[in-house]
Amino acid sequence: MATTRSFLDNLANLRLVLSVALEHIQANRDQFLKAGTAEQMREAQRLISKIQTLIEELDKEFTALETLLSQQRRLM
After folding, report:
1. What is the pLDDT of residue 76?
2. 70 and 43 within one domain
3. Helices (H), 1-76
4. Are 50 and 71 in a shared domain?
5. How far is CA 69 from its chain centroid?
6. Does residue 36 contact residue 44 with C-beta atoms inside 8 Å?
7. Residues 41 and 74 both lie in one domain
8. Do 26 and 2 fall into the same domain?
9. DSSP 8-state secondary structure symbol assigned to residue 76
10. pLDDT tens track for 27-61
11. In whole angstroms, what is the distance from residue 70 CA to residue 23 CA?
């Protein structure tokens, strides 16, 4: 049961971290674009690309999990 609780806690923590990150990006995007150096802009592009890859992987995992949850509910 600890593993299932940990799984749910991790999902809740992910939601919280993503929410805070989104708020931070929205609040600071314009300032970064005005004050960032060319090197910082390139680094931001690299990081954004890596984050987008993770988002795609998360989306696949969530789709698979939702499918499995739907199948599980039908068996209950």
Report:
1. 85
2. yes
3. 2-35, 38-75
4. yes
5. 20
6. yes
7. yes
8. yes
9. -
10. 999 999 999 999 999 999 999 999 999 999 999 99
11. 32
Angle at CA 37, nearest 5°, toward 51 and 20? Answer: 40
Same domain, 18 and 45: no
CB 33 within 8 A of CB 44: no
Give residue 56's domain range: 37-76
**Rg for the chain (alpha carbons), in Å?**
18
**Angle value at C-alpha 51, between 36 and 53, nearest 5 degrees:** 140
If asked whether residues 15 and 46 sit together in one domain, one would say no
Token look-up 């923590």 returns 13
Tell me the C-alpha distance between 50 and 7, whole Å.
24
**Cα 43 from chain centre:** 19
Q: How far apart are CA 16 and CA 2, in angstroms?
A: 21
Cα–Cα distance measured from residue 22 to residue 18, given in angstroms and rounded to the nearest whole number: 6
Domain count, the chain: 2
